[in-house]
Each structure stands twice: as structure tokens, then as C-alpha cells.
Design a protein that fits this description.
By secondary structure, the protein is α+β, with helices and mostly antiparallel strands. The protein has 3 helices and 4 strands. The protein has a 4-stranded mixed β-sheet. Helix 2 runs parallel beside helix 3. The protein is globular, with a radius of gyration of 14 Å.
Length: about 120
């Protein structure tokens, strides 16, 4: 019998395999969402290094984001991660949604990162 965690792990693994196959050496923009916050990182898998990170608990977003779990927070995090990635010299990434479907907060973060200048 499969549990919800097993199903999520299979979805996450399948997504990562597809990303590895199509990434062509580009860094990975990965998203994690909890019940209260949303987090994003740009990771260079070749070197095993995080190039940029942003989250709804970031000090620069503390005053502008009322709640860390809504779409407004996801949009703010998306713009911030795009700004920090560009400062680190990254313009093209591969979007890693993990086990989450491309909807709601995950979609809002991705679209804000695109508006901020990241290409994926």
C-alpha cells in the first residue's frame, strides 16, 4: 500500500529525472512550500552549491509581506530570487517544482521569477 509520502517521493523523483535529462548544465530553481512559508533556491548541481536563496521569512521581505503562506508572499519571493540570481550571474535556470503541481503559490513564484528576469 502506498502512502501519500511515497506518492510524493515518486513524483519528486520523476521530476528530478526529467530535469537532469533536459537541464544542459543550467542551475536549478527549486521550490519548497510549507504551511506557513515558501522558500526558493538556485542550486548548481554540478558543483553542489547554492547560488541564491530567498524565502518569505527573509528579513528584506518581513515588512512588505503580511502573511508568508499566500500568493502575495510567493510573488515577492519570486521577484527576490530573480534579483539575487541575477546578482550571482545566473540568467537561465531549470524550474524544479518538486512534488508540487504547477498551480497556486508555486505558479505565482515561477511567474514572478520570470518577470524578474530569469529564463526557464
Amino acid at each position: 500500500m502506498h502512502t501519500a509520502r511515497d506518492t510524493g517521493d515518486r513524483r519528486r523523483r520523476r521530476t528530478r529525472i526529467n530535469i537532469r535529462r533536459t537541464s544542459k548544465g543550467r542551475p536549478r530553481l527549486t521550490v519548497f512550500r510549507s504551511g506557513r512559508h515558501i522558500y526558493a533556491q538556485v542550486i548548481d548541481d554540478g558543483r553542489g552549491v547554492t547560488l541564491a536563496a530567498a524565502s518569505s521569512i527573509d528579513k528584506t521581505l518581513k515588512g512588505s509581506v503580511a502573511k508568508g503562506w499566500d500568493k502575495a508572499a510567493a510573488i515577492a519571493v519570486g521577484k527576490l530570487i530573480a534579483e539575487r540570481a541575477k546578482a550571482a550571474g545566473v540568467a537561465e535556470v531549470v524550474f524544479d517544482r518538486g512534488a508540487y503541481i504547477y498551480h497556486g503559490r508555486v505558479k505565482a513564484l515561477a511567474e514572478a521569477a520570470r518577470e524578474g528576469g530569469l529564463t526557464f
